[in-house]
Amino acid sequence: MDYEFLIVGQGITGSILANELANISPKFKIINYENVSSSSRVAAGIMHPMALKRGTLSWRGKEFFEFSDKYYENFDRLNGSEFYKKYSFFRIFSSFEEQNNWIGKSLDNIYENVISINENPIKNLNHSYGSGLVKTASRLRITEFLDFFKNKFSHNISNNNFQFKKLELNNKLFFYKGDSFKKVFMCQGVNAIQNPIFNYLPIIPNKGELINVKSKYLPNFIINSGVFSLPIGLDKFTIGSTYNHRDHLKRNTKEAREELLKKLGKITNLNKIDFLSQKYGFRPTTMDRKPLIGEHPIIKNLYIINGMGSKAVLMAPLLIHELLQNKIDASVEIRRFSNKIKAENIDFANSLIH
Ligand SMILES: Cc1cc2nc3c(=O)[nH]c(=O)nc-3n(C[C@H](O)[C@H](O)[C@H](O)COP(=O)(O)OP(=O)(O)OC[C@H]3O[C@@H](n4cnc5c(N)ncnc54)[C@H](O)[C@@H]3O)c2cc1C
User: Fold this and answer.
1) Structural domain for 345, as ranges
2) Contact 124 CB / ligand 1 (< 6 Å)
3) Distance between CA 228 and CA 278 in Å, rounded?
4) Which of 286, 306, 341 is the last residue of a domain?
5) Alpha carbon distances (Å) from 71 to 1, 117, 162, 318, 321
6) Residues 160 and 38 in one domain
7) How many helices (H) and strands (E) does the chain have?
8) How many CB atoms lie under 10 A from the CB of residue 214?
9) Residue 192 C-alpha from the chain's centroid
10) What is the pLDDT along the chain (354 residues), one digit of tens a residue?
């Protein structure tokens, strides 16, 4: 069949892209192998514009938040769904220094609608240095969001492993297993490190683990004190996440579970918490902490969208919108890594051309 677009990967990135491309043409195909540990299926889905460790706005944080907030709200309105929800979000301070920084920032105009100091004590929590409110915070239930797309585009999706060796380029058209495509988009998350055309890009898998617990004790809003607690209903909470770029093993670890409980134990009584389950996934992070978006330097109409790190929900809608408008932000453009392209990538790219 003749298609306009091929998307490889249906995580949050591929799904949002498909949603946009569907407005341009219904003739697109998605190839995605199901993977319960894919980053998007594991992610908590929390979105806010802050870099909490530094206590500052994250890169383009306000702009991303405003765009994505409208994007997901519109999405739910148009589809009659409820995947997106605003949350109260409190940062539990770990020192006077952090508290002072937050107070200072909250007096600054730029932060006016973003953060404030919380004067009220939070029940059941040890927070001797107080807490701050992030006024713009929300959550996307990503698994349900992805399943919605899986059903909506069921005629366009094939549950298969995309094999690069079977891709051919002839007279400006891509051919893959009997189908033709005008444009190809690679949205593979960490699996892009096995992509023979794009694997010169510095994608660093960063393992993250989360646990679900049961408690009648934790608050019914998001708290973050280095670990977050996210209420997911019926007295259940997701606690996360760890960050580990050294552990590449595809399994849950006792160390991560203990680390999360230890951090949670600093702010609440662990005797009131029952462990339920654990999950892991690998975030696609990058050397300079910026996403990787753009067209392949040799093969025209072959694109990559990757490197969303721990802020895919926040950044993906606007960055994909900009890509489709031909207005890629220079900080995310893959051209910044052109000097890393290897001879084998060039050879492979040339081998596709017939
Ligand atoms: C523990 C944890 C917690 C997180 N929490 C948050 C959070 O609260 N908020 C937030 O914004 N982000 C969070 N993240 C980060 C977020 O999950 C990622 O940035 C995001 O999921 C990346 O999405 P993606 O679509 O690029 O990749 P992925 O989710 O990895 O999707 C890629 C898809 O492509 C498929 N694929 C790959 N190669 C092929 C191939 N050759 N053929 C066919 N299919 C292929 C994969 O199977 C997969 O389905 C978290 C991550 C982790 C691990």
Assistant:
1) 5-42+143-202+288-352
2) no
3) 15
4) 286
5) 32, 28, 29, 9, 11
6) yes
7) 8, 21
8) 15
9) 15
10) 999 999 999 999 999 999 999 999 999 999 999 888 899 999 999 999 999 999 999 999 999 999 999 999 999 999 999 999 999 999 999 999 999 999 999 999 999 999 999 999 999 999 999 999 999 999 999 999 999 999 999 999 999 999 999 999 998 999 999 999 999 999 999 999 999 999 999 999 999 999 999 999 999 999 999 999 999 999 999 999 999 999 999 999 999 999 999 999 999 999 889 999 999 999 999 999 999 999 999 999 999 999 999 999 999 999 999 999 999 999 999 999 999 999 999 999 999 887
- Candidates 213, 226, 224, 216; CA nearest to 259 is 226
β-pair type (28-31, 2-8): parallel
Same domain? For 305 and 329 the reply is yes
Does residue 167 sit in the same domain as residue 301? yes
Residue closest via CA to ligand 1's atom 27 equals: 189
Give how far the C-alpha of residue 101 lies from the chain's centroid of Cα atoms, to the nearest Å: 27
Tally the domains of the chain: 3
Same structural domain, 135 and 236: no
Q: What is the pTM assigned to this prediction?
A: 0.97
Q: Are strands 292-295 and 302-306 parallel, antiparallel or unpaired?
A: antiparallel
3-state secondary structure of 293: strand
**3-class SS of residue 181:** strand
58 lines ligand 1 (CB under 6 A): no
Same domain assignment for residues 189 and 65 = no
Among 42, 161, 188, 260, the mutation site with the greatest number of ligand 1 atoms within 8 A of its Cβ is 188
Q: Please report the atom of ligand 1 found closest to the CA of residue 279.
A: 1
- Is 196 in the same domain as 242? no
- Is the domain of 18 the same as that of 149? yes
